[in-house]
Design goal:
mainly alpha; 2 strands; 43% helix; extended
Length: 110
């Protein structure tokens, strides 16, 4: 994964292969290359512009090839509360429920 500033995040096995090839961690860091934990994941939510908001759809066929994604319906409020039971922070639970409610309301507007 290449970040906006040029930093490269690579899988641990690729990092280990570069070290085995003779590069040092300092050399890789100076080149803005860093390993990521094997459990590292990026989870993002997004909603295409539609309805009253209008706008140009951003999830084109070309952009979709960059990601593995699953389209899921907005959860019912009871389901959202159940999911949040597994989140440690009460502030984070509140934030998640608020965001889910926004998504649910926008889905009804279209």
């Amino acid at each position: 994964m290449v970040l906006f500033d040029g930093t490269r995040l690579i899988r641990q096995d690729r990092w280990d292969a570069l070290l085995a090839d003779g590069l040092s961690a300092e050399e890789l860091h100076s080149r803005s290359v860093f390993p990521v934990h094997p459990s590292f994941r990026v989870i993002a939510i997004g909603q295409e512009p539609s309805g009253k908001a209008g706008g140009v759809p951003w999830l084109t066929a070309e952009v979709a090839t960059y990601f593995r994604f699953h389209e899921v319906p907005a959860p019912r409020p009871a389901c959202a509360l159940w999911m949040c039971a597994f989140v440690g922070s009460e502030d984070l639970r509140f934030y998640i429920v608020c965001k889910l409610e926004i998504v649910r309301c926008k889905a009804h507007d279209t």
